[in-house]
Amino acid sequence: MSAILAALVAAKLGGAAAEPPKTKEDKPVTHTVTAEGVAGLPFSHGKVFRTLDEYLEHRRALGAQDAPHYTEISPGVYELWGGRRPPGVKPPTFTRQQLLEEFGFRE
Q: What is the pLDDT of residue 85?
């Protein structure tokens, strides 16, 4: 089935190769920084967050509904829990600075 799908896609694109995956630098910004805080974050449900901690708490609460959330495993280091991951693969880890930059917050 995938060979058929690939042939259809190639025909639709005129035989052109598929676009390469985007790098982190090419990733489109999905949030907006306003005077009130940061809006448009993943799983925000229309809420605006003033701080990273406020947003992480919101995501933690959504974890009860199987939404991916961040857990602080040591000071300033977080693991992303939930979502789809192959068995045996450890959750990715992020520093606080990485999350601040990723989601558009200032300390």
A: 83
